[in-house]
Amino acid sequence: MPGHRYMQGLSLPKLHGTLVAVMSVGPALSDLWGRTTDAVLLAHQKHRALAASKRLWVEVGASQGLAGEACYISLDPGEYRRDRPATHNDIIVTAPAIQHASSWRELIAATADEADADEFFATETLTSLIAQARDLLKVTQLGRPAFATMTHKINTLIADADSIHINPEVFQSLYQDAVPTFQFPVMGFATAELLLRAQLGVGFRFEGGVTGISAGALSRWLMTQEATFVDGFVDFLAEMGRITFSGGKTSVREALAQSTVYAFQRRLLHAVYCYSVAMYAGKVAQDLKRTNRLRYEPLVAEESLVCTITGLSCGAKLALDGYEAIVDEIRLEIQANRVEAAYRVAHQYSSEIFPILPETVLEVFVARALVENRGARLHEGVQKLETLWQEQQLDHNDDYERSLVETGLLDAYKAVGDESKARRMATRIAGRMLVGRDTKTQVND
């Protein structure tokens, strides 16, 4: 079992991952999506033996899915689709009912409390996240509309349309105020900002604001307008959809190349924003039978969005126990002397269609498994960890990744009997933890 050696420094990515997963879809949908995630993970674990010879798909019912329609999710390799898989290599199981899943409020409260109690890995970023988590927990307790401040800011921004037209950077500022700080659900923000831009691009204004307007509601309204206006509106949406669909793919690729889980999660959050715009624009074009104006497939945008949210949600769930399920999968392959298969497992969790963790973190998992196995490839694991340690390009939010490599190297040096290096690494680890404890004391003072 990975135990505490895979948990050190995890407070930041665990809390941030939980907040990202919840706020990608918003609190109203996150419990449904969380149960769906639990069901898919449970089904794959329960029927893992079937996947040895077939591709396992989990059928998610319409009442369980994010899009309100039945869908099929595979984790090996990761894929989301609406059409029922029908090849001879596919096997389909029904997602089990989850009766007692933790609510988003319980998950945020628990991870925030755990982070607050972290004695050795407190940082300014983590302290700020704890405060944001506490604020989010108050949203449904104050007797006022959720996210009222940001809703008002978004809906009144159009009054300053002239300055927005001159200074488009205001949209970037709005994104920074709303998304990374969890002041507004990402999918809702993405579509509201799209409609803000549309008002400027097409030259009209929505009465009553732009938040909460579904693609279906917008389509029904557009059906009452003149054809010339509708064509111009759809052309604008199509161009924004094209730009953001491409931006979403770029953000996912950039996320997978990050050196820390925290940075990975932030880039995936931007991908959710991008794909949300592309999916919304695509749905409107479909409703109005003008998909010929798009340069991408609306279904692919939806699949990309669901894959990204699934990755974030599954990643947040798996982080709760230090990614133990992934580590165990890799370890089993190493114990069976199937090292290439271990790397395949790692790649499975770091792909564009199932982005759970950045590539470098999964490489550490494989290297540590090679060391922990104490087998013929022990020295390969040691060398891999040393290379990863030398190549690390981290920042002040890197406690988890540093701990993964350094505790792995401490174990490695003990395994090969290099007492001198083991002592130096133990001193390094202890020193960094003491500095972390001192930092927390200063922050609290």
What does this molecule look like?
With 445 residues, this protein is mainly alpha-helical. Helices cover 64% and strands 5% of the residues. It contains 18 helices and 6 strands. The strands form 2 sheets. Strands 3-2-1-4 form a 4-stranded mixed β-sheet. A hairpin with a 2-residue loop joins strand 2 and strand 3 (78-81). Helix 1 (11-25) runs parallel beside helix 11 (261-287) and helix 1 packs antiparallel against helix 12. The longest helix is centred in the middle third of the chain and has 30 residues, at 227-256.
Give a brief rundown of this model:
The chain has 445 residues and is mainly α. It has helices at residues 11-25, 27-46, 104-116, 124-138, 148-156, 161-166, 169-178, 186-203, 215-222, 227-256, 261-287, 298-319, 324-335, 339-348, 359-373, 378-391, 399-415, 419-444; strands spanning 55-60, 71-75, 78-81, 90-94, 350-351, 354-355. The strands form two sheets. The chain has a four-stranded mixed β-sheet with strand order 3-2-1-4.
The H-and-E topology, N to C, reads as: HHEEEEHHHHHHHHHHHHEEHHHH
Give me the side-by-side strand order of the main sheet.
3-2-1-4
Q: Rg from C-alpha positions?
A: 23 Å
What's the average pLDDT? 86
Uncertain runs are: none
Overall 3D geometry?
Answer: globular
Structural class: mainly alpha
Strand content: 5-15%
Q: What is the CA-CA span between the terminal residues?
A: 37 Å
How many helix segments?
18
What is the share of helical residues?
55-70%
What's the story with the biggest beta sheet? 4 strands, mixed
Number of strand elements: 6
